[in-house]
Amino acid sequence: MLRRAVRRRTAGLHGPVHLSLSGGHDSRGLLSLLAAESVDLRTFSYTQGPQAPLSDTRTAQALAARYGARHQTVQAYRGDLLATVRRNARWGHGVTNFCDEADAWDALAASHLTHVFTGDEIHEIYPRRISDVSEHLIRFHVLPFGSLGNLAGRLAPPFRRILEGAWAAELDQMRAAATRHADPYQQNFMIMSGQYLPHYLLSWRERFAGRVAAMHTPYLDAALAEFNHRLPPPVLAGKRLFIDTLTRLDPQLYRVPLARSSGYETDWRAELIRHREAVKEDLLTGSSRLDGIIAPQAIRAVLDGLTAPGRGEPATLGARVRRSLGTFRHSPAGQDVFGPVRSRVPSPAEPGHLAAPGVDPARAGH
Fold this sequence. Notes:
It comes from Deinococcus aerolatus. This protein is of the alpha/beta class and about 375 residues long. The chain has a single domain (about 1-355), classed as HUPs (Rossmann fold, 3-Layer(aba) Sandwich). The protein has 16 helices and five strands. It is globular.
């Protein structure tokens, strides 16, 4: 079925076929499947700054070389924060999550790509049973109103009340739809297929990648989706069936180890601090239709309040040890020892809140 899904999407295509390649399971499986179709296969991956040996970027380069694909790396962010914000506003139309790699897609547009394949798939559910539907929602970035933190307090009170009520009502509808299924695995699958894919992932593909080239997502093939729906949910947990199938089709697939880091993360808090004055001058000059929702002085206060560094390598030995322990805690082995990790609601200072205040990316497609 995987082979047929790829073959249906490569039949009749002319010219190079480009694959967005990372170091994980999904895109490497698609790399193997596409290579077997004898297409003019080319790959690309994002990069940002110095690369660790097992970063996504380095792993993608090694995979491309192993399968004979011509590979290019594209800088995810080129250092102009305002240009990146403008691209997100113009291309995202306010209905997608913030795209960290908008600059890369701008560069790819100049390369005149015609067909891009991505490894988006629905062959996975969370490998551990979760009894609370809210935990499922948070895992798929469907967050409660409280995730806005102090940003909510800066919204105009009438708008805040309206937004909070509408937000809570929609979350209640999602919970009710999920709890129609008694099995937590099935709840996870329904939230992923009913919320995450259409309103978070695919809207991003359409608005950013889709403006560059025709997008192909073989793993979302209708026949595969129907087949998955008939499977006992535990078979999908942790991509068990998917990974076993890929390995049987190509026993050499995992000769290149899985990536351990992204290789293209940007410290957006540090960028906001670095470009703070330019952002103020550009965004707080004149009037906006949003002034009645969030006052310009509130935006200024948020910018002025940014003082600590964002994500990055911890400076002290203690911080590095804590990060290593945290990595183990979230690993399968760590969860076997300590039990499942409860999902955390992100802080308003994290990158997702570069989006417009009050817009939950996972629900914005509504």
